[in-house]
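Re: that chain you flagged

S.,

Sorry for the slow reply, it's been a week of failed gels. I finally had a moment to sit down with the sequence you sent. For the record, here it is as I used it:
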Amino acid sequence: MSEHPVPYGVLVLAATPIGQAGDAPPRLAAELSGADVVAAEDTRRLRRLTTDLGIELGGRVVSYFEGNEQARTPTLLEALLAGERVVLVTDAGMPSVSDPGYRLVAAAVEAGVRVTSVPGPSAVLTALAVSGLPVDRFCFEGFLPRKAGERSRRLDSLRDEERTMVFFEAPHRTEAALAAMATSWGEDRVAAVCRELTKTHEEVRRGPLGELVGWAAEGVRGEVTIVVTGAAPSAAISTEPPALVAAVAEREDQGMTRKEAIAEVARLAGVPKREVYQLVHVR
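Prediction finished late last night. Pasting the structure tokens below so you have them in one place:
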């Protein structure tokens, strides 16, 4: 849907510092002080930020976090439709990136309300830049599932991902996450654990996953972003029936289920899964 002309308001996604207040984009102070509504993930952190920036808020402040995001989105949309300028901020970084925001953005776009942003700090890009790993192609995977089984399945699905991968993780789950990565992808896969980026105790630990697991076992504190190098490019598999059958058998011997082996072989060979399935099951 195309954006509606005035008098609809504007939704501003405003990036906030991930560490030092001095990293705040120059426009952030102006947007916050001039907003009709500021929707904040944590209103207390917002107050600290405005104090650091030396500004006062002229509009009203509402909380907008994971627990009330769905219920509060219609109210904020009403403000936008009434012509108000709504600025959305999260605790750190860009709203909607593993933080509240997506629902409001989607609702605003659907209603034809203009959506813009104040670009600025990003833990994803900062971690990529300092990791020392390839950054020409990458993907952001957010937080891994908390439950071990679900986490392992997610990581197994990324086994052949060739792009550099970026994850957010809680400090108390960092060791478990690294161990699960090492199990799924091998202890030699190179990674970087970026802790407390741009803050006083910033630390970047680089090395093989197996080595990083040992480091994390001593305890990890602060905000954590994990960057992991992608898998080596997979060699294509011949589409000849004997080669397809042999490739499935090889993967089954390595521990894959037949279903998983068929899916991977079909993908690498560029043929339909049903074709590989039929070849394997008519032997």
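What I noticed first: The longest strand covers residues 138-143.

Talk soon,
D.
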